[in-house]
Design goal:
By secondary structure, the protein is an alpha+beta fold. The protein is about 30% helix and about 30% strand.
Amino acid sequence: MPAEFDVAIIGAGVVGLAIATELSKRQEGIFVIEKNRAFGLETSSRNSEVIHAGIYYPEGSLKARLCVEGNRLLYEFCQKYDIAHRRLGKIIVATNEDEVSKLEELYQQGLRNGVSDLSFLSQKEVKALEPNVEATAGMLSPSTGIADSHSLMRAFCGLVREQGTDFAFNTEVIGIEKTRDKYRVEIKDREGTSSFTSNLLINSAGLNSDTIARLAGIDIDQAGYRLHYCKGEYFSLNAPEGAPVSRLVYPLPELAGKGIHITLNLDGNVRLGPNTRYVDEPDYQVDEAHKEAFYQSVKKFLPRLRLEDLEPDFAGIRPKLQGPGEGFRDFVITDEESRGLPGLINLIGIESPGLTAAPAIARYVAEIVKGIR
């Protein structure tokens, strides 16, 4: 491994790989470091694999802007590189009259964000599209879909390798020192500890991004960078008669998430989830005791659901900046020059819609890099 690089990217999840792909189009000397044995083993592979439209986020936020742009870019990338995906569409439902006004607010927010293909549905129109769904009203998002996240990351990885980018897996960053015009990064792998230098350092470490920021000398509490682990569990639906829906069906969003919803994967299998549970440490076990809560949540709009048809599936962890009971927090994507760390680009709190936004985030970071040069 060379001892000097132009750009080092910490984290080989979908966002880190997308950034590496974008930067490798125009420069050499890129190094990607990943503490796990392979790419995308944490948040990037433990989610609903949904291509979101950009409805849920406040107008002008990075989440809104990058989700809307990422939706277009991700479909284009999947088509170009033959990544399995389906533009299924999604219906967000209101299950009583009190929820209809909230759904209307969400609809208007989506339009303000530039999601131009939304349509408001009556009870009859929801039933015509999804006969098994009971709702007072709904909102149809045709541009919502699903994608094979592993194949997407594999494609990013392949493109980056073609450009000669170096990778180091099973490698943990344990120290960061700012020198006069570079960063010296200390790493630990199976062979011991070593170090390298890089002109630019991009922190895309997902669940550990606040730790990396702290290693660089940032007071993460003062900066508002401390992450909160928010667990999301999924239950699979045993549906021998076939999937009860033909598209994704969501309730109105909750404070910390989008609500327990019905998703389909590319094989046509049905999942319910995720819930939202703040935890002290990452834990990927699904608690079967939560099955009743899943059942009660989804039965409101899918009355044919049976408790005995639910089986524990998998869980993921969201790296949230938003703590329990707190309001909206946007992505942090910034060059830390104002903190005396020029050339350190932090990406913190990259949760949903991170998968959808990944190619747009990559372009955004590339513009930051261009501005530094």
